[in-house]
């Protein structure tokens, strides 16, 4: 029965919307991928709306706690399975992290699609069954967030390198950035750290490992600036900019890290 629903109802709907999606092109309604309007957002929404219009009562009945149809998992084995397989075959590039803005927009669209599927579940049991299904896991594995974060880091770190690769700043000049920082390099670091968690970069629902990657990315930006300043300013770091003969002894142990950060944010 699950295969019948997938073949007779869901597959033609998905095929129809995929054809319309390809005919419309990568941009809908004049909104670009870079602005956050993903190419998959409208596709997923229209597919689910059409499926619910055709098979909504059947799906609802199978998800009811006391329904005689509760043994059928139409949501996973009919709907999600077909969407996962057909979209992957027709639009393989949509899952690629090679273009981070497009990947970000499509990932968010996919998460909203899964959220919409989960809303159909009437009980915790049905929700757990959906999330534990092999089709759910397969769909999530297609989104390589680790590569996405790696590319984002390279891009942001490049911005930081470009900002630091300038003439030595005048420490007597008034602050040009937030009240807490005054050096141009520090201002650039703050901007890069802000970008790392900006809405058009940050991905919700990522695994704990990817959360750690984001944290390490911020630490790496600080260390990258520290290393770069030693190259630009000389062995004395920021003190070298002042031509000051005094040198501050390096703190011991874990205080070294905090000293580096505090010096960078002068």
From TrEMBL:
Signal peptide: none annotated. Residues 141-209 form the COG complex component COG2 C-terminal domain. This is COG complex component COG2 C-terminal domain-containing protein. It comes from Dunaliella salina.
């Amino acid at each position: 029965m699950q295969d019948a629903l997938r073949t007779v109802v869901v597959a033609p709907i998905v095929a129809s919307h995929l054809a319309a999606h390809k005919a419309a092109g990568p941009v809908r309604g004049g909104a670009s991928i870079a602005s956050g309007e993903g190419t998959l957002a409208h596709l997923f929404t229209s597919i689910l709306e059409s499926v619910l219009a055709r098979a909504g009562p059947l799906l609802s009945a199978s998800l009811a706690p006391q329904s005689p149809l509760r043994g059928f998992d139409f949501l996973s084995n009919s709907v999600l399975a077909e969407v996962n397989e057909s979209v992957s075959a027709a639009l393989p590039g949509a899952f690629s992290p090679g273009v981070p803005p497009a990947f970000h927009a499509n990932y968010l669209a996919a998460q909203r699609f899964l959220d919409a599927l989960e809303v159909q579940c009437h009980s915790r049991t049905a929700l757990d069954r959906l999330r534990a299904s092999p089709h759910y896991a397969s769909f999530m594995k297609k989104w390589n967030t680790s590569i996405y974060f790696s590319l984002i880091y390279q891009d942001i770190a490049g911005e930081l390198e470009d900002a630091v690769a300038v003439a030595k700043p005048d420490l007597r000049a008034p602050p040009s950035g937030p009240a807490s920082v005054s050096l141009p390099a520090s201002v650039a670091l703050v901007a890069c750290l802000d970008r790392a968690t900006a809405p058009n970069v940050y991905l919700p629902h990522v695994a704990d490992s990817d959360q750690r990657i984001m944290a390490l990315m911020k630490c790496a930006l600080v260390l990258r600036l520290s290393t770069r300043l030693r190259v630009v300013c000389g062995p004395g770091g920021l003190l070298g900019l002042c031509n000051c003969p005094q040198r501050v002894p390096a703190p011991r142990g874990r205080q070294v890290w905090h000293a580096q950060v505090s010096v960078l944010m002068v």
